[in-house]
Amino acid sequence: MINQFIFDQDSEDSCESGFRQIFETACAFEKFYVLSTAVEHEIFDALSEPKTSSELADLRGLHRDMTEKLCRAMTSMALLTKNGDNGDKYALTNISKKFLIEASPYYQGDLIKLMKKTREDRWGNLSEALKNGPMEIPRDHTVFDRSFILAMAEAAICGSLQRTMRALRENEDFMRAKRILDLGGGHGLYSIAFARLNPDFEVTVFDYPQVIEGITKEVISGHNGGINLIQGDLTKDGIGSGYDVVFVSDVLYRPEASLVPILKKINTSLNDGGLLISKHYHLDDISEDQTAVFFDLMFTISGGIDLVHSSAKFCDFIEDSGFSVVHVEEIGSPSKIIIAKKVMK
Ligand SMILES: C[S@@+](CC[C@H](N)C(=O)[O-])C[C@H]1O[C@@H](n2cnc3c(N)ncnc32)[C@H](O)[C@@H]1O
């Protein structure tokens, strides 16, 4: 049967683009493993000065032939270059200098390490979960370790932080605020940005004790004061009161039963007319919001409790908790900012 397809131009044309899409999807795995392995062995930092693969292997204690082949793979991905004055030495490209050197403000190494861990611990169970349902993977506060929070900081700095600030700067009610709570603020970068936006804002980060002690204090130490810290578990402990704004970003991927009590707690902590500003992934359009589709599936593999809501459903939960939604804005799919005002009693 294969003979009839070999010289058939129509078959060739109709297969070509579909095959390329399938093949590129399949190859994403190889590319990711090359990248994450290089990050794990700090190969990019070692190549701050160009080196042959043997010099690199000796410096990092790696196998010489394997290192040469890994460098070739990275060169094919435009993460390294071998051209120019360096002869047989490998050097960094502009992209790897910007995103893969630890000293760069745009370093993405912790995010890549987190993605590798997530792929191994969670995505590796997809087939099993498909047959037997979500896995019993314990999900507690220990997920939020230093490396996880650094990964969140790296993701924020590459666009969502700047887009959020641009959106909020336009909001007069936000700019008139005095006291702002950054609930589940983790790394504290949003709080630092608020304090820079208006030095008169009094900003507070709330997070687990191990996060505040393990990373937030260190990150905000580079900032000139004015940021308060509260340690606790937002599901059990008080979050303070008298706020004009509660900002909450990528914290509330929860089912209704545990989400609504948190929204009500936020409502109680706000002054009359105060704002809830939520920034989360929302799953509104399956083809547009592909990252949210994968995120939601990943949650379900590993426990089946957490989930990504549509923005309409999320707005319903917000309104059921004593707010009136005043603004919904996409800040780069699938993230949306939802601004809601506390309804005065
Ligand atoms: C995905 S990170 C988001 C960090 C930051 N808001 C951002 O958008 O980059 C979730 C944050 O919420 C915090 N968090 C989650 N559940 C919490 C809880 N029950 N009590 C206190 N903090 C919590 C985590 O420690 C972590 O810092």
Order of strands side by side in the largest beta sheet?
5-4-3-6-7-9-8
Largest sheet: 7 strands, mixed
Looking at how many chains there are and whether they match, the oligomeric state comes to single chain
Structurally, the number of domains stands at: 2
- Evaluate the radius of gyration: 24 Å
Low-confidence stretches: none
- The CATH superfamily of the largest domain appears as Vaccinia Virus protein VP39
Strand content: 15-25%
User: What is the 3D form?
Assistant: globular
Helix content: 40-55%
Total number of beta strands: 9
CATH class of the largest domain: Alpha Beta
Classify the secondary structure makeup into a structural class: alpha/beta
Q: Count of helical segments?
A: 15
- What order do the helices and strands follow? HHHHHEEHHHHHEHEHEEHEHHEE
Separation of termini? 76 Å
Describe, in plain words, how this protein is organized in 3D.
- The chain has 345 residues and is α/β, with parallel strands linked by helices.
- The protein has 2 domains: 99 residues, Orthogonal Bundle (Arc Repressor Mutant, subunit A); 213 residues, Vaccinia Virus protein VP39 (Rossmann fold, 3-Layer(aba) Sandwich).
- It is 50% helix and 16% strand.
- The chain is built from 15 helices and 9 strands.
- The strands form 2 sheets. Strands 5-4-3-6-7-9-8 form a 7-stranded mixed sheet, sandwiched between helices. A two-stranded antiparallel sheet has the order 1-2.
- Strand 8 and strand 9 form a beta hairpin.
- The model has no long low-confidence stretch (mean pLDDT 93).
- The structure holds S-adenosylmethionine.
- The site of S-adenosylmethionine (SAM) has 16 residues, from helix 9.
